[in-house]
Amino acid sequence: MTVPQLLLCLSLSVLCVSSKPTEKKDRVHHDPQLSDKVHDDAQSFDYDHDAFLGADEAKTFDQLTPEESKERLGKIVSKIDDDKDGFVTVEELKAWIKFAQKRWIYEDVERQWKGHDLNEDGLISWEEYKNATYGYIL
């Protein structure tokens, strides 16, 4: 090996060893949060309220009197209790929370669809999508 080749190999080795990545990337896909509120039961149950009812329904409950809230929650609990034994199990509660999340997603998709289907024919053409999404730019 000649001296210039040796110097080149040595300088490349030093460069590789001394270089560090500048940014650590998170490669894990995280599940969306059940609520945008802080999850601290010592302070409040707002996070659980949103997860249990869904954000929109939780806002409605915030406007009710305690008596109305208790009555409506009783109706919801009877829907959650699938086996009608008078108790809500962890599995029934998990299923309800997933149902509430999916309901919100489907409602949001419906809103988005209506916003993009400009001619209301039940289909979204590329022109409709482009105009609804980027129309202010064009």
Give a description of the structure:
The protein is an all-alpha fold. The protein is built from six helices and no strands.
N-to-C SSE string, H for helix and E for strand: HHHHHH
As a whole number of angstroms, the C-alpha radius of gyration is: 27 Å
List low-pLDDT spans.
none
Structural class of the helix and strand makeup?
Answer: mainly alpha
CA(first)-CA(last) distance? 61 Å
Q: How much is the average pLDDT?
A: 78
Overall number of structural domains? 1
What is the molecular shape?
A: flat
Largest sheet: none
Range of helix content: 55-70%
Assembly context of the chains:
single chain
Instruction: Determine the number of helices (DSSP H or I, runs of at least 4 residues).
Output: 6
Strand content: under 5%
Question: Strand tally, please?
Answer: 0
Compose a concise summary of this entry.
With 138 residues, this protein is an all-alpha fold. It has helices at 3-18, 46-53, 55-62, 66-80, 90-116, 126-134.
Looking at this protein, list some descriptive labels.
6 helices, mainly alpha, CALU protein, EF_hand_dom, EF-hand-dom_pair, 138 residues, EF_Hand_1_Ca_BS
Task: Give the arrangement of secondary structure elements.
Elements: H1 3-18, H2 46-53, H3 55-62, H4 66-80, H5 90-116, H6 126-134
